[in-house]
Amino acid sequence: MSNAVGQGAANPGASPPASSGYAAKPSSRAQAGAIEQCGAIQITNLDFFYGETQALRGVTLKAPAKRATALIGPSGCGKSTLLRVLNRMYDMYPNERATGEVEMDGCDILGPDVDLNLLRWRIGMVFQEPTPFPMSIYDNVAFGPRFLENLSEGEMDERVQETLLRAALWNEVKDRLSEQANSISIGQQQRLCIARALAARPEVILLDEPTSALDPLSSLKIEMLIADLKQNVTILIVTHNMEQARRCADEVAFFYLGEMVESGPTAQMFEAPLRERTRNYFAGKFG
Ligand SMILES: Nc1ncnc2c1ncn2[C@@H]1O[C@H](COP(=O)(O)OP(=O)(O)OP(=O)(O)O)[C@@H](O)[C@H]1O
C-alpha cells in the first residue's frame, strides 16, 4: 500500500507540546498506574451558557472508561452542548462559556493550560452529517497521526490499514485509498470519519447522532462498530433513537431542559427508571 497523494495533504507537522495541563501521555499514565482508567470522564456541577442563554444547569455525570454512555432527551435539552464542552469546541466562540468541573482520568479538561489541539484528538468527535476532509481516503485517516506522531511511511501505511480494519471499512476501500473521501457512500464516509478519529488512538469518541443521516444498513454497521470499539475506547453517543440507545449503550443519561435528570445502567433506565419525568419520557408522554 502506498499513499498516492503523498505529503500533499494538510499536515500541521506540529509535535504535541512538551507540557499541557491535560495531556498525560500513555507512558506517564502507565507509570501512574492509571492505565485501566483511560477515558473515564467525571462531570461535576457543569453550567454552560450561550451568551445569556443557559443550556446546561448543574450537570453531574460519570461516563465510565471503555463503556458506551447514551445521552437521551427531548430536542433542545443540551445533549449536543455537553459533547461540545467535552472537547472544548465552545472555545472557538467568544460568547460561550462553561463553569464547573470536567475531568478525564483526573485531569482537568476545562483548565486554561489545556492544549486544545491535542485534547480534540484525545477526545475525538463525529457529527450527524459525515465531515470527511477534502482530501484522499488515506490522508483523512493519516491526518491525526501526522499531527501527533513521527511515523515512517511504512508505519503510517500500517496505521491506516489497521485503523480502517477497526472501522470495518478496509475491505470496501483498500483499492481506493488515493480517491477523494467524498467519492464513497455517505455511510462509508461516516465510518471514515470514525476511522479518522480512531487513528489518533483517542481515549474517548463523542458521537452526535451518528446514524441519523444514514440508511438502515449503514446505521447497523455503525452500531456494530460501536459495540466493537467500546472494548478499547470510551464512547458518548447522543441519539434520539431509543432502541439504538438500548442496543448500544451500557449507561444511559436522561436530560431535560438542560438538567441531567437521571442516569444509570441501560437495563435499569429502561425497565425501572427512578424519576417520574424519565418514566413519562420513555412512555412517550412528551418528546
Ligand atoms: N449557538 C447557540 N446559541 C444560542 N443558543 C443555542 C445555541 N446552540 C444551542 N442553543 C440552545 O441551547 C439549548 C441546548 O441545545 P442543544 O443543541 O445542546 O440540545 P440537544 O438536546 O442536543 O437538541 P437536539 O436533540 O435537537 O439536537 C437549546 O435551548 C438551544 O436552543
TrEMBL record:
GO terms for molecular function: ATP binding; ATP hydrolysis activity; phosphate transmembrane transporter activity. Residues 41-282 form the ABC transporter domain. PROSITE patterns: ABC_TRANSPORTER_2 (PS50893). Keywords: ATP-binding, Cell inner membrane, Cell membrane, Membrane, Nucleotide-binding, Phosphate transport, Translocase, Transport. InterPro entries: AAA+_ATPase, ABC_transporter-like_ATP-bd, P-loop_NTPase, PstB-like. Pfam families: ABC_tran. SUPFAM superfamilies: P-loop containing nucleoside triphosphate hydrolases. GO terms for biological process: phosphate ion transmembrane transport. One of its GO terms (cellular component) is membrane. This is Phosphate ABC transporter ATP-binding protein.
